Each structure stands twice: as structure tokens, then as C-alpha cells.
Amino acid sequence: MEPALHNFYDLTRDELLALASRWGFPPVHAARLWSYVYLAGVEDWAAMDELPARYRAKAEGELQFRRLGTAHETHSSDGFTRKYLLALPDAARIETVLMRYTGRVTACISSQVGCAMGCVFCATGQMGFMRHLTAGEIVAQAMHVDAVLRGTQHTAALAQAAAASPHARHERLRNLVLMGMGEPLHNYDAVMRAIDILRDPNGLALAAKRITLSTVGVVPGIMRLADEARPFHLAVSLHGATQAERATLVPVAKKWPLDELMDACRYYIGKQQRRIFYEWTLIEGKNDTVETAHAVGQLLRGQLAQVNLIPLNPTPGYAGEPTGREAAKQFQAVLADYGLPSTVRQRRGIDIAAGCGQLAVARR
Ligand code: SF4
């Protein structure tokens, strides 16, 4: 049987260089290949004319660029958000979102097909878990968004926002959030490998301070992040300030209860000397009262923390309503009394089901 081809996007730069040596070529050719792909966005072997023909032929026989095909693409009515339904080689599908804010573009990428965590208000959780993504499939999503940006196929609104950016003419992907489909810390090794590839200084060179990983509270993963001193931002989805309230929204709280989660978060903050962003989905009448805000304040008081409030986005499987603007402001005011900074997340892409908790591989 023929040996399987390597997916180029699964490889770190060091591994690509080591492969070249194993094939009997100097690593400099592999370094050039890496630059073609990650700096110039070239994946056409014929266009890589600075590579020696023998190395190129060998690499072409051993490596494959497993890009993800676009099965469907949707643009929000305000032009700031694009959602891509991407096809994986086994016919599974995932969603990746490009979000534009003034002067910056962020890719929201997925780490799994579906999700095992089952958060009740989340469309991905409502799908159940199908499989983990490989590192290459995670990297390919970022490369997909980068290619879109380099193609600069702007709508009028996108062009206007891009003009506000000093980098508008040479737009590249610079901000990444792992908040798409799946729980990143449930697929720890593949996610960390992908981030290492995307951070490689000779390639896409994403800065750690522009990468945010979101978890629903996978305690062993948080401890491991702390021990490995991973330098990017961590967002922890809280949603409830007591064990009982949290467990009604986030079933995985039964496995990793709130007190264990708080211990892990304090451990992370202590080791990393880095703040945690706590995500709080605001659901009208459920977890948005002033009393609840006090409970959050008491829970997080004294921590190096920020709270991101996200008014609930609609999904077919959950009947709750988002908290209104005034109630969100009151919630923020209470948090401020406890010395906790907070933001209310800008709602983007809701009309195309590209907001937080809405990704579900449906053609919407
Ligand atoms: S919110 Fe995140 S962790 Fe929870 S079910 Fe959805 S994708 Fe999974």
C-alpha cells in the first residue's frame, strides 16, 4: 500500500525541515517552501519556481495541501461578518467566521465537528460530538480566512472599515479566536500544535496576544495551559455563579464543579500572571438579575479578571431571550462595584447565525 501523503498543514516548520533532511535535501529548500505557503499564499507546485526541481518533485509526491472547500458562504446584511461552511475530506462540515471590527479582522475557528459539552443554549452543543479536528484542519481554517483577506473581495461596508486600518492594502489575518465549534481543551494536542504552526515567526506569525482560546471549564486543560505557560489569552465560559445554576446551562459543570473550576482559574492566574476573560451569556430572567451580578462579583472579587457579557443569541433548540441593554448596563454597574471590568459584546453576524453559540453547519 502507498504511504499516506502528509498534510502540509499538520507539519511544524521544524518537522518540514527535518523531512527535507530525511529525503537528502538541505533544509533551506523546506524553509523556502514554508515561505511560499505561509507568506506568499502559494500552494501551486508549478508556481514555486525557486525550489530546485528535484526537491519540488519529491515534496509534491509526499505532501498535500489539504485546504477546506467552501460548501457555502454567507455574508451578514451589515457586511461585517462572513460565515464559511467548510467541507472536510470525510464529508464532515464545520463553520468558520470572519468578523470585521473597525481596524481589525478576527477569524473565529472551530476545533471539533460538533461538541461534547452540551451547553443548552448553543447550537453546536445541540448537535452532539462527531469528531476532533486535526491540527491541519484547524490551520487550514485560518489559511482560508487569510486567503479571503488577501483576495480583498470587499463589499462596500467592508471596504469602508478596511480604509480605517493602516494595513488595509496588505491585509493579513492577525487576530484569532478559538470560539467556533467545539471545546478546544477537549482537543488539546491538535489545538496547541495548530497554534504553534500559526504562531511560527517565519510564517503567519500570529502574535500570542492576538490569540484567544475559549473553554467551558475543562479543568485539566486549564491546569495544563498554566503549567505549559502558553502565552495567549484564555476565556472561560461561566454563565452561572453557583454550582446549581451553572449546571443547568453547562452540563459539564457536573464533571468539573464550580469550586474546582475556580481553583484551576486561580492557579492559572497565579502561574501565568495573566487575566482571565470570563464569558457570561446574558439570558433574560435566567442569569441577568442584579442579585446574580452580586453573586458573580463575590465569586470573582480579587481575581485578575474581566467579564465579557454576551446577550443570548437565538438558536433553534433553546427558548431563552437575550437580556436588554438597560439590564446589561445594570449588571455591569454591579460588577464595577466589585472592581471587575466588563464589556458587552458587540452583536455581529446574528442574521446569518454566526454569533456566539450559533454555529451548527446549517445553510443559514
Ligand atoms: S458553548 Fe462551546 S463548549 Fe458549549 S456546547 Fe457550544 S461549542 Fe461546546
Alpha-carbon Rg, integer: 21 Å
CATH classification, class level of the largest domain: Alpha Beta
Q: What is the global morphology?
A: elongated
Structural class: alpha/beta
The small-molecule ligands in this entry are: iron/sulfur cluster
Number of domains: 2
CATH third-tier fold name of the largest domain: TIM Barrel
Q: Mind telling me the CATH superfamily name of the largest domain?
A: Aldolase class I
How does this structure look, described?
Mean pLDDT is 91; it is low at 152-159 and 165-169. This protein has two domains: 6-64, DNA polymerase, domain 1, CATH 1.10.150.530; 69-352, Aldolase class I (TIM Barrel), CATH 3.20.20.70. The two termini are 42 Å apart. It is built from twelve helices and 14 strands. The strands form three sheets. The protein has a ten-stranded mixed β-sheet with strand order 3-4-5-6-9-10-11-12-13-14. Strands 1-2 form a two-stranded parallel sheet. It is of the alpha/beta class and 364 residues long. Helix 1 (13-22) packs antiparallel against helix 2, helix 5 (135-151) runs parallel beside helix 7 (188-199) and helix 11 runs parallel beside helix 12. Strand 13 (305-311), helix 12 and strand 14 (342-344) form a beta-alpha-beta unit. The chain has helices at residues 13-22, 27-38, 53-62, 123-127, 135-151, 156-163, 188-199, 219-227, 243-249, 258-272, 290-300, 325-337, and strands at residues 6-7, 63-64, 69-75, 81-87, 93-101, 104-108, 112-114, 129-132, 175-178, 211-215, 233-237, 276-282, 305-311, 342-344. Bound molecules: iron/sulfur cluster. The site of iron/sulfur cluster has 12 residues, from helix 4.
